[in-house]
Write the C-alpha cells for this entry.
Amino acid sequence: MPSPLLVPMSQNTPYIVEMRDISKVYPNGVRANDHVTFAVRPREIHALVGENGAGKSTLMKILYGMERPSSGQIFVRGKPVSIHSPHEAIALGIGMVHQNFMLVPSFTIAENVVLGAEPVRRRLLDYKAAVAITRQLSAQYGLEVDPEAPVEAVPVGMRQRVEILKALYRGADVLILDEPTAVLTPQETHELFTAIRQLVQSGKTVIFISHKLREVKEISDRVSVMRNARLVDTVDTAAVTEEQLARMMVGREVFLHVDKAPLRRGEPVLQVRSLEYVTEAGVETLKGVSFNVHEGEILGVAGVEGNGQTELVEVIAGLRPATAGQVLLCGQDITNASPRQVRQAGVAHIPEDRLTNGAALSMSIAENLIVDRYERPPFTRGGLLQPTAIKENAEWLIEQFAIRAPDGDVPVGSLSGGNMQKVVLARELSAQPKLLIAAQPTRGVDIGASEFIYEQLVRARDNGVAVLLVSADLSEVLSLADRILVMKDGQITAVFDNTPSLTEEEIGYYMLGVKRMSAEAIAARA
Amino acid sequence: MESTIPLSFDRIAARKAVQAERRRSMLIDLGVTLATIIAALLMGFIVIALLGKDPFLAYEALLTGPITRLGRTGRWLELATNLILVGLGVSIAFRARQFSLGGQGQMVAGAIVAALIAIYVPLPPLLGVLIPIAAAMVTGFLLGLLPGVMKAYLRANEIVSTLMLNAIVLRLYDYVLTFHLKPEGSATTRSLPVQPTAQLPTFYELFGVDLGRFNLGVILVVLGAIGVWLLLERTPFGFAIRAIGANEQFARYGGIDTRRVIMLAFAAGGAVSALAGVHLLLGVHRRLFLDFVGNIGWDGITVALLARNNPLLVPLSGLFYAYLLVGGDRVEQQAQVGSELVQVIQAVIILLITAQVLGDWIRARRARTQAEG
C-alpha cells in the first residue's frame, strides 16, 4: 500500500527521529501499526494523539526498543538504526517517561536519578556526587526537585520530574512522555508545561503522547494523529482547532457537550456517615467522610487520584470493610454488607479498573452481562441455567448499548476498551439500580464511547437514579455533576454546587490542599 | 482486536465472519493436536533409533499393542475408566483455578470407605453397588471440603494442603488395611473380597467377551462426563466456578460468594475423583491391597490438563493417555526398550500438547501471512 508522504522533507532541518513505513503485527494477529511514517524535527514539541488502541503506545515502544517492528525502518539523526532494547535507545539519546513511574520508592530522588549509572568512588556509590548531579540537572532544566527526599514522600508531579531527570542524566536528547498529565492536577500540569518549554529551549526534543486535545493545543508545535493503527496526518498545531483534531482522531464530528434536564432532586438515596477506612498496612485512607447522594442528582467526586476515592467506592460497594462509620441506602444499613447484599439493596457499580473488577476477559459478553443475576429467573430456572434467556439478554443489551460485537458469544477480552466499558455499563444500568457508582467511567475509553457513556449517566439521573461519579478528569466532573465534592487526604475539603462560574482552577486549589472549606460549610452542603 | 471487525459496522456480516473464524480455528485446533502427536512420535522414533534399538518394532508395539489382543484392549479401557474419573474430578477445581492435587487421596479414601460396606455388609443386588458408590462419593466430598475450607477461610495454599492430605490418607489406608482389614493369618497384606452383590460385573462375566477386567464401571464415565459438563456449563454453581476461574475479583465484585463456591468446587471434585477408587474396588480388583491405586491419581491430573479441563474432552484424553501407558508396556516387552525411555516419549507428547508450542507457532505464522497479504 503506498503510504502518503505526510511530512514535507526539508534539506535544512533533517529529522532527529524518523520512523518510515513501520508496521507491527502481534503474534495474536492484532495489527497495531499499519505502515506508519512518523518524523520529529529537532527542538520541537511533537504531540502524538489518538484514541486508546490507535497504536501510539506501540509506535513509541518500538522507538524505545521495547517492541520490534514487523517491518519498516528507523532513522536517528539521519542514520538507519535498529533498536533492540531500551538500553540501545538510551545510547542513541532517546529517553522515555512511562505512565507508571519506574522509581524505587524508598530511595532518595538523587539515588533514583543515578540508579543504573551511579557515580562511584572507591567502588561505592558516591552519594554526594549523586546529589550534586541531581541539583545541577535540576537547575539547568528548571525541573525543581528535592534531591535528598525519598521518592515515596514527594508528590506525583515531582516524581514525574525525577523520571525526566533520570532520562536527561542518561543523555537523552529526545524525550518521549507517555500521557504525562494523566496523573497531574491542573497546577502541576501547568508546571510540567513550563518545564517542557525550558527543555526545548535548551536543545531537547519532546514527543508528547496524549489524548487530551486542549493540552495538545497548548503545548505542542506539531501534532501527529493516529487512528486505527494508521497515522492520519501530521500538522502544525497552530493550523488546526481542537474540533478538527477530534474529528481526525475519530473520523467524525464529536461534541462532548452534555444535555441535562433541569435538576429534580429527590430524597437522599445514599447516606454516608463518618466513614473511616484503615488499610491492612495501617494507612488511614478515609478519615470521617460524610455526604448524601439524592435521587435524580449526579454527585461528582473530584480529587487527585490516591486521596481515598478508590477506598470510598469500594467500601460502599462492599468490597472492603469499613473501619468505622455507616453507609445507608434508602435508610437501610448496608455497612459491611457483602457485595451481593449491596447489589440487592439497589447499588450498581462501574468499577475504576474494568480489567480487574469489571469483566472476565475470557468469558463471553453474555456471561459477563449476568454475573450479578445469573442465579435468578429468567437466567436460572429449576436449578439450571437457561442459555436462551442468557443469549436473548445479551442480544438485547448489545443492541441497546450499541456494543460493537457480532454476538454475545464473543469473549469480552476481544473488545476494544470502549466496548468493554459499554458491557460493564449495560450490566450495571440494566440492574435498575437506585444508586449508580461510576468510578472513572471513561478512563481509557475513546471519545465516541465516552459521549455515549455520558448520555447514559445523565439519562439514569433524569430517571431518578442517584449517581455517584468519581473521576480524575475534572472536565468530566464539571460537565456531568450537579454537585461536586473534593477529596484530599481521605477527607472532604470542599463541596460545590456546579454553577457556570465554577472553574477547574478553583477546584484545583482544593484538590491540592491550598484551600479548604470550613467543616461547617462542608457539613451544610454535603 | 477491533481490526477483525469491519469499520462500517454490519452486524450480520460481522457475525458471519466471526462464525467462519470460529469454525476455522476449531479445525486448526484439531489439526494442531494431531500434528503435535505426530511430531512427538517422530521425536521418540529418532531417539530410539539413535540408541540403536529398532524403532519400527518399538512403534509397532506402542501403536498396535493395546488393540492386537482383547486382553490388552480390556486393560486399556479399564485404565482409561480410572483416569477419566479422576480427570473429571480434578477438572472441577481446576476450572475455578484451584490447583488441587488431592485426586490420589480422594480415590483411596473413597475406596476404603466403600470397602468397609462392600466387604462386610451383605446387600441386595444393585443396592450392593450403589451404596458403596454413594459412600465413596460422600467421603470424597468431605475430603475435598477440607482443603477447600482451608483455602477459602484460612488462605492455606491448596497445593500444599492437598499433597499433605494425600500423604495422611495413604498412610491411614496402609494402617487400616494391615491391622484391621487383613484377615488373621493371611500371608499377603490384602482384604477379603467384596460381596458378590457388590461387584461391578466385567464384560466377560456379562457377555463372555474377554476384555480382561473392563467392567460396567464404564457407565460411571458416561454419567460422570455428562454430569460434570452439566454442572459446569448448565448450573448456577458451575457459572460461579467458571467466573472465579476467569477472574476471581470480578466474581466477587459481581456478588458471587467466592469462598463458598471455591470450597464446594473442591468438594464436588473430590466426590467425582472418589468414583475412580470405587471403580477399582468393585470392578477391577474387588479387594484392597497395598499400593492399590498406583499412579492413577497423578495421571488423572495429566488427563485433565490434556483436555484443558473440558469435561467432554476428558474421556478422549483419558483414552489417549491410557493407550500410551498400555502401549508403552508393550514396547518394553517387545522391543527391549527400557521403561524410562517409554516414559520419556510419553512425557514429550504430553509436554508438546500441554505447552501448545506447535499451536502457537502455527497461529503466529498464520497471523503474519495474513498481515502481509
User: Anything to note?
Assistant: The CA atoms of residues 273 and 290 of chain A lie 5 Å apart. Chain A touches chain B through 48 residues (CB under 8 Å). The radius of gyration of chain A is 25 Å. The first helix of chain A runs from residue 56 to 63.
